[in-house]
């Protein structure tokens, strides 16, 4: 159980950092907060996309690891009589 908690903690950290990085790069792109022209914009857009892939993979893995809990919670919420 301790190992499971560590695994979840590290995954949560990765997801949190990816979310922050995605937010920052998205704001940089939206408000043009970078020096350079089209090539630099494409560079930051690619970085933003890859960070999004990492974040999506982390969230998917998180859901897979917690599928039992999700099923139990859904059953408890939706199957009340």
Descriptive account of the structure:
This protein is mostly helical. It has three helices and no strands. Helix 1 runs antiparallel to helix 2. The two termini are 33 Å apart.
Poorly predicted runs: none
Give me the Rg, rounded.
18 Å
Biggest sheet, open or closed, and with what strands and sense? none
Cα shape: elongated
The SS-based structural class is mainly alpha
Number of helices: 3
Average of the residue pLDDT scores: 95
Give the % helix. Answer: over 70%
Total count of strands: 0
Question: Could you tell me how far the N terminus lies from the C terminus, measured between alpha carbons in angstroms?
Answer: 33 Å
β-sheet strand percentage: under 5%
* SSE pattern, N- to C-terminal: HHH
